[in-house]
């Protein structure tokens, strides 16, 4: 896990450097060159601070492992998941994220009600629920209720159905 | 003042006005629970409806009720599913959500309700007696003082860093500040760091970032770990117990409520600060004041850690009415929207309002007291039922949490790219959490970053250089406090490492 801390610190160093490069090469308008605070003043300062901080994390001495307190609940520290990955269901987690991506891409095309119902149904299916007689009505009714609340009550537009229906 | 108070009492406590105050609280609470719809959006949505009422006092009483109802409603989704839809309730999730995961959802909601009520009520009392005096104090704060106050807020990130994590917390704050520079700012109109992406022209949306950082990783971890958060040995997934708080707990949060009501109110009085910075500072101050044993509980389900931001944000939202009512200057984004309502009603908020329309001025203030009682009466009996939401089977709950988070980002933007950005932040947040990098400082840096840069720029322009730091005493004091906030935990960490 400590390696991951340093890997991320290295990535943050790269990010801060790239950010600093973009800040330094930011194209200032003629009148902006004479301002006390230019559009790239704060970004340059932040990139320097980011570089210093990420280097400090990289060279920081190894911290001792904290004891995980037992309080009667299963509250794992997040780093524990990587220590014993075989004990956890990564397929469900990653599958859910991929499903969410597909939902995001297809939301405008398929319409809110149709897309959301499908997302809730497939999400429940992915997590192991096979009680279709409960899953399907809940998915559809939740989407419809949410759409009604937002579109009709709050008057925020959400296309309900696919493009080709209307 | 006594005449005004009596007139206000007579106006505020009519059946019509009490009904609309209660209605406003109810609507605000329900809509505030939806992610993506903070108090500002809710009040803006209600303005056209409320203007139909006709009576200015009733209209403003309804809108004020919607405002603080929405603040309270936002804390419910923050506590139950770690989906803070508004900046002012992010700090609530730090201890509220761990409490809910520990099977204490009911207690968490109860403490949130009581703290909100107390903060709001004490805020109303302070508003009643000190509004004009505080208004003259508020206008002494210029850009230099605001810059220093933002610095104090940023330095309070040490409160969110556990032992040995201060450097990581500082790094995350810097990352948040970097994200805040994306897009346009009020100081520099040309967009920065958009990388040619049109959707980033107006910057990164707060809800997108908040949901991506908090709700998405939580849904992911709940999906991969079937027994996450369940009491070991328990048959039920969540037990709804401990709805009441005992005497010892009440005694421990009482001083927190007292301190944060005053601190939150004073921060809210200053225009432009609002409930967000009040809640973060409230959390940081209480963590620093806690004993070493209690400090370890912060971030893991501390009742003080929940009570502090909840009290502070409600007190600050009341305090933000001070500059609006007495000077006509909105104290926060929501009061800026309320200013629009005042103008639509042909009312000019400011020094003359108290003299020309005392029934409006005092009835709005007194209705807040009634509104806070309504919030408590409405929400406390609902707590067991709201808390039961967590007993929903995970195969329904987890997709709902994810959907809720995405809906919050999608509503109002109607842009699928926001959802992809949200999921991108979610994946990054998951990786950060594996390596134990704290995420709250990133969000704090993002929220305060814009104001930080703008006020710094204005202070530099006004003073023609950096000398404003030592020429203005209040600025110097605040910067010194910020330095203490940052350096003390860093030195403490360094000494601990050296000892080992």
Most extensive interface between two protein chains, with residue counts: A-B, 78 and 77 residues
Shape of chain B: globular
Number of helices of chain A: 6
Number of strands of chain B: 0
Oligomer: heterodimer
How many separate domains of chain A? 2
Order of helices and strands of chain A: HHHHHH
In short:
The complex is a heterodimer of chains A (166) and B (500). Chain A is mostly helical.
List keywords for this structure.
heterodimer; A: 166 residues; flat
Could you describe the 3D structure shown?
- By secondary structure, chain A is an all-alpha fold.
- Chain A folds into two domains: 2-63; 89-165, no CATH class.
- Helices cover 63% and strands 0% of the residues of chain A.
- Chain A has six helices and no strands.
- The longest helix of chain A has 23 residues, at 2-24.
- The N and C termini of chain A lie far apart (53 Å).
- With 500 residues, chain B is mainly alpha-helical.
- Chain B has one domain.
- In chain B, 73% of the residues lie in helices and 0% in strands.
- Chain B has 23 helices and no strands.
- Chain B has helices at residues 2-12, 15-33, 39-50, 56-81, 90-101, 105-138, 143-155, 166-180, 206-224, 247-269, 274-289, 292-297, 303-319, 321-327, 333-344, 351-356, 358-379, 383-387, 394-410, 416-434, 440-463, 468-471, 473-499.
- Chain B starts with a helix and ends with a helix.
- The interface between A and B is large, with 78 and 77 residues.
